[in-house]
Amino acid sequence: MTGIYWLASYPKSGNTWLRLMVQACLAGSDDVDINALSFGLQHAHHRPLFDESVGVPAADLDTGQILAWRPFVVRALAERLGRPLHVKTHDMRLRLPGGEWLLPPDATAGAVYLVRDPRDVAPSLARHMGVGVDEAIDLMGRHDACLSRSVRRLTTLLPEYWGSWSRNVESWLAPTPFPARVVRYEDLRADPEGGLAGILGALGLAFPRHAVRRAVAATGLERLKAQEAVEGFAERPRGGPFFGDGRVGGWAGSLTARQAARVEAEHGNAMRRLGYLA
Amino acid sequence: MSAPAHRHLFGWRLRSEVPLPELLPWDGDAREPDVEVSLGSAPGLGAGATAFGPAFQIAGDRVRLSVPGVATYLVEGGGRVVVDPQVDPGAPDIRVFLLGSVLSVLCYKRGLLPLHASAVEVGGRALLLAGESGLGKSTLAAALVARGHRLLSDDVCALDPAAPGGPLLWPSFPRLKLWEDAARQLSVGTGGLERSRVQLHKYHLPVGPGRFRAEPLPPAHVVLLRRVALPRDAGPRPLGPLDGCVRYDMVHRWRLGLALGCRALLFAGMTRLLRAAGATDMARVDDLDGLPRLAGQVLRLAGAGDA
Q1: Is B181 close to A153, i.e. CB distance below 8 A?
Q2: Quick one: closest CA in B to A64, which residue?
Q3: Interface predicted TM-score (ipTM)
Q4: Which CATH number covers residue A249?
Q5: CB atoms closer than 10 angstroms to residue A118
């Protein structure tokens, strides 16, 4: 069995927390080192992998051409390894101009998509990007948002195609091009053990109940925050702490009524599908 | 169109119908050109060809690279390149791939090992700054040139592993490619500089005649740049020949080299390079502010005082 298991989400929806929980399962330890996180890396966006697999460096290509050739790189990654690989992504499931899927189904073994109330995503994204909440809401509404790109410098990762929050979510709710297990962040917070057990199955992994319980205990947000405060976090070397308080419904205290109404107006359809709006 | 020009590249006499203004004019002997670059059509290599990635086809001694919206390049043996442009043949976009991946193919075909490295002269030998794209090879080379060290090559170096007196590095041409943020850090104005591609803020910085070394040099030291996220993981670590031999990241387009059947060249080249020169794994955080200190560090590795 080969192929890629995607750990997908819009940014700031609990992806890193989930990866740490799985890592803790694999390690079977009561502690997790946030700076030794090796499970679910963003391999599909790894610049040297693209450069060497394609034979033409992404640095010399425009974004459209990089996206067009990324399905090939994903396939090369899946084939080369000869065993399943877990890969994090914030990409939406985008159909490219030539008809190919950005995340090709033939290289896919499975997928989990974490989704979080966009009203909670907005303040977290604002903090993460170092921008105001209104700008974060702008970004979440941008139809063709594509991150990690700059024409002025070379970024570490290749462009990620987020799309808008709604587009991202709806692309993963759709049955094509491959099935994905959609999990609400809120449900995972409410019952991490039960949620994680289901997710592990969808990722082709299995651990005994006690290992899952141990992993959940090792990755409590307070522990992750405490560790980041002392050591920093390698996936977030600059610009303030990565781990927030992860609260469900925290938006009620951090969004203005106008901001909340804007998110609800722009993303109402997808929010209703997920039970975030009546 | 102007007459084809005869130019210098890695010791070859190169005759080109594609304008290559960054290459030095040929001033060597009256030999026939070693490499001919012409404009023409570059049709597909047919059903019998092997694909390497989405852009390359390989069939016998022919290699075809197709970059949509820019050009198709057909390399025949190690001596002929046909360029079929989709934009103005004089556009820098054409040269980006000709002097990048196509140049690498020519090296492999001609028995030279292309290294993914910039190189400067330090004490009569070559200091190599190697590693994957985006690690600061060109920026560091520019900082060393500004300190008075002559440039041999930026981004791609050609190693002749079989040179009689030991491995030699051949110079390419007097130009550095810098992204806008690096140029700003080095106080290089980008006004009036050519962009490598119109849509990218990556600039071609010409290097003056006194600041370029046009003759080959033996290697002094290989610094393999690598990025880490946290300062606690940064620092230099000596690489022995055995560790170094598996560091394919010092080779330019190494997977392509393997696809071209050059495994022996790759292995022999890396082995001989590391036997002739020391090597250091240099893990660093992405920090342009640390450049002056890094420049001092790599110069000491190459045997220079803190020049």
Answers
A1: yes
A2: B68
A3: 0.90
A4: 3.40.50.300
A5: 29
